[in-house]
Amino acid sequence: MPTQLQSRAQPPTFGGGTGAHIALEGVSRTYSARNGAEVQALAEVSLRAGAGELLAVVGPSGCGKSTLLELLCRLQSPDRGSISCPPAVLMPQHDLLLPWLSALDNAALALRIAGAKRAQARARAEGLFVELGLAGFQHARPHELSGGMRQRVAFLRTLLSGKPVLCLDEPFGALDAITRAEMQEWLAGTLAGEPRTVVLVTHDVEEAILLADSVVVLSPRPGRVVAQLEVELARPRRRTDGDVIALRERALAILATGSQS
Amino acid sequence: MRRSALRTLPAIVLGAALLGAWEAYVDLSGVEADLLPAPHAVASALWSNGGLLWRNFAVTAEEVVLGLGLALLGGLALAVAIHLSPLLRRAAYPLAVGSQAVPIPVIGVLLVFWWGFGLFPKLVVIALICFFPVVVSTVDGLAAVDPEQPKLLRTLDASRWQSFRFAELPAALPAALSGARIALAVGVIGAFIAETTTPSTGAYPGLGREIITDVNFQTARAYAGTAMLVAFAIACFYALAIAERRLAPWSIRTRGETR
Description:
Chain A is of the alpha/beta class and 261 residues long. Helix content of chain A is 34%, strand content 23%. Chain A is built from 8 helices and 9 strands. Chain A has a 6-stranded mixed beta sheet with strand order 5-6-7-3-8-9, with helices on both faces. In chain A, strands 2-1-4 form a 3-stranded antiparallel beta sheet, with helices on one face. Chain B is an all-alpha fold and 259 residues long. Chain B has one domain (50-254): MetI-like fold (Orthogonal Bundle), CATH 1.10.3720. Chain B is built from 11 helices and no strands. Chain B has helices at residues 2-29, 39-48, 50-84, 86-99, 104-115, 120-143, 148-155, 160-197, 207-214, 219-247, 249-254. In chain B, helix 2 crosses helix 10 (219-247), helix 3 packs antiparallel against helix 4 (86-99) and helix 3 (50-84) crosses helix 6 (120-143). Chain B is globular and about 75 Å long. The A-B interface holds A 70, 73, 75, 88-94, 96, 98-100, 109-110, 112-114, 141, 143, 157, 161, 163, 167 and B 146, 148-149, 151-158, 162, 166-167, 170, 173, 248, 250, 253-254, 257, 259.
């Protein structure tokens, strides 16, 4: 186990996100499908992310992006290779808010799991809840919230786990274009105030370039790293900036041809 | 208030139409009153035997409520155990299904031998008849949680118990309550079976026993007793539906929601 999954987890640091550091070396993962066939999700994936960075992972559907996040969250172990990652928390594709809890209680779920009483957990969650633009929706049930609001609550639930690494699995994939653009801005703003190391899986190349410090492009199954692009552009970025457009075109070209040339 | 009255109107109209047809049939066909009493005869039997029927009804209602409570406790406990233990699922599920095929008179004498002529053996019979829908629907409800949900909870460091308490248990509550409603509908006939298979020594043996005694010579009174059982079953069913709305309001609002 230690040779496969080298855990160099540092104690979680709050607020600063410093000390987080992700490194994958030659990671492969193969599943047995239900019909007995072997499906290779990831092949020889190596990548790095520095503390406090946002790493975006883009690629066609079925390229093992979700598998990558589950490996980082220790929900799976790699067949080969090593993973070094501080404690990570998952924000799944669907918000998975619990319909019987209010928005505030959903956001505070991690605190309750950590042993806080309901009132305590609420009190501790309330500050960020309001800060993240959810004021007035404390007692709303998930079904009363719009898609964007639900994602905000789900993100806050992830944030309040206190873990240094956030794994976001296509968080805005199900939203309409206008809401998605709004949420991208919101996420950038939120991370500026609450820095964490973030691994963002998305199929939206533009989203990756707007938000990330570094973009990893994966090939179709089995997922291999085709390129890792550094995005050294000043923030805030706009989708209409020439540099953003140029980088987006480059990433799209890599995705289309499956190689960096 | 006006709206809820409007909602019950179709049931009242249909009930009244059926009663009218019944009355007309008895009138026109000349069928004997001992075979099929007319609704007005049943109503008058209900009126003139009100005290007797009511006291028997009270006995039966107590049996139904307590028996159903026993079935709910047992059914929920078994469902949770089956959900948590695949081994127990394989071992106990077939037996639970098989238990539903046991004709109660076969074990009625044994129950009386063990627990006498009192209330308890009747509760056991009712619980035996009622627990099954509770088990099946609760097990299905517990298993219907989104498979991504436990993953999320694990990355939030939830223990198995916390995952059960925060996600699976509340998710299964609406299904368990649906099971309870089905159980209640069969629980009333369960009480009838219980009373007719395990004798009682009380002053009032219950409505089931009363109906069996009356059915040949006091047919109108037997029908009057039956009408009380029918009304009781309907009332209990809707009482539970209201309880479901209170206890699990999300199940009504999110039902049919697609992801």
